[in-house]
């Protein structure tokens, strides 16, 4: 018999849910990570000689993915890709 665990849908903000690993009701811990689009935006700013603005895609939350983890057991819950 095979057990399938389905990750809950997560959004850009912390979400309250039951952790699929430890079964605790938690509010997810979030972390923003750069994605391919973030690097492309920085490269385009570099190519157009906007040197002071190169770090903006890495500082702007709308250019990065949001990774959700359980604060209790540190299990990966899901990612919200922009």
- Dominant shape: elongated
Mean pLDDT score, rounded?
A: 89
In the predicted model, the low-confidence regions spanning at least 5 consecutive residues are none
What is the helix tally? 2
**N→C terminal distance:** 36 Å
Largest sheet: 3 strands, antiparallel
Helical fraction: 10-25%
Structure overview:
The protein has 82 residues and is of the alpha+beta class. The chain is built from 2 helices and 5 strands. Strands 3-4-5 form a 3-stranded antiparallel β-sheet. Strands 1-2 form a two-stranded antiparallel sheet. A hairpin with a 6-residue loop joins strand 4 and strand 5. The longest helix is centred in the middle third of the chain and has 12 residues. It starts with 15 loop residues before the first strand and ends with a strand. The relative contact order is 0.29. The model has no long low-confidence stretch (mean pLDDT 89).
Provide a quick synopsis of the model.
This protein has 82 residues and is of the alpha+beta class.
């Amino acid at each position: 018999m095979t057990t399938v665990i389905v990750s809950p849908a997560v959004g850009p903000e912390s979400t309250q849910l039951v952790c699929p690993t430890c079964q605790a009701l938690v509010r997810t811990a979030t972390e923003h990570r750069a994605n391919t689009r973030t690097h492309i935006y920085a490269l385009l700013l570099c190519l157009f000689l906007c040197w002071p603005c190169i770090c903006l895609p890495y500082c702007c939350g709308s250019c990065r993915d949001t990774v959700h983890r359980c604060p209790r057991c540190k299990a990966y819950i899901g990612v919200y890709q922009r």
